[in-house]
Amino acid sequence: MTRATEAFSALGLATIIYIALFFGFIPLPDIIQNKIVPVFPWWTLVTFGSYSLGYLGYHIMTFSDCPDAYTELMGEIQQAKLDLRSKGVSI
Hints:
The protein is mostly helical and 91 residues long. The protein contains four helices and no strands. The model has no long low-confidence stretch (mean pLDDT 92).
């Protein structure tokens, strides 16, 4: 199975379980059924968003520099500027 198939299978299974919990097909204590189950999708969405922002923030903060790529890019920019100037474009 591909990763997409696995992800959609897991999402489908979680959706079926949530619907069964929401409509009471799976018996739960009353407080869980009325207070926790209805807000569970929002809680998971907020949790996933928080995790994603933290993950991105951490990896942006610890982003390693690539001096070789920098020098290569600057060389390509200079080459492009020279090419444009030879064709009469002012930069």
